[in-house]
Every structure is written in structure tokens, then in C-alpha cells.
Amino acid sequence: MNRKKKRGGTEVAFRPQTIIEARYDLDRRQNDILDILLGIVGEGDDTEENTRYEINIGDVKHLYNLHDESNAYSYLQKAVKKFEGLGFRLKEDEGTDIYYPWFSKIKYQKKRGDENRSKIVLDLHPEVKEMIMSAKQGAYYRIEYPLNLTKKYSKRLYYLLKDKETFNGGVFVISFDELRRMMKIPESYANGNVKREILDKPYQEINGNTDISFEYELINEKLPSGQHSISAVRFKVKRIRRNTTVIEYETIDKNGEAIPTTAEEQEVIDLLDCSPKEAKDILRTAKANGRSHEQMIEILSYTLKKKVDNKVGYALTILKNGYNEPSKLSSEKKSSSWSNAELDTAYSQMNFEDLERQLLSN
């Protein structure tokens, strides 16, 4: 094992420079799995010969900004399943490149009734394990930072920046074509769109939400046509004081799918125990009807005290019509008692397309 012993336990990962610069296209969740795995490799009593690693759900789910952890196994299982049949390419020399599968074997073990003991067992190709352990260059990072970045290109750029932060004062230049190649951007994509996806959006997300910040400068070249094109990018990376800013919240549905939610939406979800879609409907209705945040929370709190099963429908009718136990949308008579059927009807008659048009016209 040639690389230095990492500190920080399994919550710190080492990603070799060869993997950082390899050609592959993984989504954000697949990179999460790699981060978790790279936090385990080489830790504790791990030996050079060992290639089998277990991701225990109870040990890792706290690393995510998840407000509902009950489906964490399904959530991670879906990410790992996307690795089946996938690998990455390394260029050995001008005439040779090598393809490696990410994992030579994957085993899913779900413990019914005790999700914390559920686990996913991953077998690395022996040469991939050797590559990780013998690497002398690469990035050490706390996995909480890339785990909670929301865009896959933000993650890829974060790994590259972490690899370079201690060299030459954090200043380095990389060709734009090389960046495109690393991130598997199709050649047909215009440079302007690529710049927005792999530079501008990561700039907004990495800065202020991780342990580094960066600036970049485009280097242009003049083409034979007389037009200018991006030839390279100069980066300046700076390590900053550890930041624990939460970028986004996530709610996991019963199928294990993660649904990003804003802090405002999550507040509604936590208060009313509703779905992300229902939270969005509540916020749109409140905004369209001029309800302040304080008024909306007051109405939701009031709704919680009412003996109705369809609390979302009830809250929506009050947000729209006011506290005078609103005249039911399907009836002229007023009453302080609402049946579930009437609330379902009221909810179904809410015209959210009109609300969207109303909001956009303001």
C-alpha cells in the first residue's frame, strides 16, 4: 500500500487521480456509492488482497440530508443497480486503453424488519483495488460534501479541484476538450451549453457549500474562420473553512426514489406529513392567494387541529377561501364540518394550471 494512510475513518475517501481523470458517465447517486466505497477501502484491517466490501445501510444513511430514512436501503440499492454492466476506460498510452468493470460482483442483502442491518456487498476487480491502494496522487475529501451536491458535473469537478488544491497554489490549466472528454460530453454539444453545465452550475453549487471555493478563467483561441473558441480553462482553487450548509433536502418515497425538495417545501412536509407534490400545491396556492409565510403556517397549524383525514384538501380550501369555513366549491351551504369526500372534491377542483399562469403574470 503506497499511498499515505488517510485520517477521518470511513467518512473520508481517497479517489485516485487515475479514476478522477478516467472517462465515464456516472449520475450523482452512482458517484455517491463510489464515495462511500472509497471511504471504506484501505480502512482498518483492510489488506491488499481483499477485494470485497460491505456497505451497511445503518452506517451510511446519516451522511445524506434525508428527512425520511425508512427507505434508505431501496434508495441505495437503486443507485448500485445502475452499475450493473458498467465500467470505465483508462488510456494507457497512445495506442492502448483499458476497460475495467466498476464491480466484478454485486450482492444485495435486505434484512426484513431491520433495515439498519441490510447491506450491499461489492467485489472490486483486483487491478482496480491495486490501482486505488498504490496511487500516489489523488484527492482526499470528506464524503459528506460530494454526497450532497445535487448535480453530477458538480461532483466530477469537485473531485478534480480537490486533487489539484495543494499543487502550485491551487492554480492549474486544463484543456476544454479534456474536460469534455473526462465528463463524457457528446461532441455535438455546443461549447456554450457545456460551459454552463460543467463550469457555471458547479461554480454556484460548490462555492459556499463545500470545503473549497474556486474561480475560473476561459482561455480562447482564434479559429481559421476568425471566430474565437474556448481552448482551455484556468482554475484557482482555495481551501476554505469547513462549511456545513445544507444544499437541499430530500424525501424518499415508498419506491426508494429520492425527491429533491426546497427548505420551504420540506417545512410543509414536516408540518403536515404530506408528499412533495402536495407541499408544492400548498405553496403555490398560498402564493397565488397572497398568503404570507406566517399566514400559511398558521393555516397549516389550524388544519392539524381539525378532525379531518384529508388535511391537504382542507388546508388548500382555507388558503384559497379564508377562515370562514369556505363555501364548498361544489355547494352553496356553509358548514364547519367537512367530509373526506367533499375535501377530495375541493382538492380535485383546484386548478393548478391557472395558479401557475397567475403566478407567472405577477
Describe the protein.
It is a single chain. The protein has 362 residues and is α+β, with helices and mostly antiparallel strands. The chain has 3 domains: 144 residues, Winged helix-like DNA-binding domain superfamily/Winged helix DNA-binding domain (Arc Repressor Mutant, subunit A), CATH 1.10.10; 97 residues, Winged helix-like DNA-binding domain superfamily/Winged helix DNA-binding domain (Arc Repressor Mutant, subunit A); 100 residues, no CATH class. Helices cover 40% and strands 20% of the residues. 28% of the residues are buried. The C terminus is likely disordered.
Mean pLDDT: 79
CATH superfamily of the largest domain: Winged helix-like DNA-binding domain superfamily/Winged helix DNA-binding domain
Can you count the beta strands? 12
Which of globular, elongated, flat, extended, rod-shaped describes the shape? globular
| DSSP helical segment count | 15
Low-pLDDT sequence parts: 243-249, 325-338, 358-362
What brief labels describe this structure?
362 residues; alpha+beta; Arc Repressor Mutant, subunit A; 3 domains; three-stranded antiparallel beta sheet
Question: How do the strands and helices of this protein lay out in sequence?
Answer:
Layout: E1 12-16, H1 17-20, H2 28-40, E2 52-56, H3 57-60, H4 72-81, E3 87-93, E4 96-101, E5 105-109, E6 119-123, H5 126-134, E7 138-142, H6 144-147, H7 152-164, E8 171-175, H8 176-182, H9 191-206, E9 212-222, E10 228-239, E11 249-252, E12 258-261, H10 263-272, H11 276-288, H12 293-305, H13 311-321, H14 340-348, H15 352-361
Helix pairs in contact: 7-9, 10-11, 11-13, 11-15, 12-13, 13-14
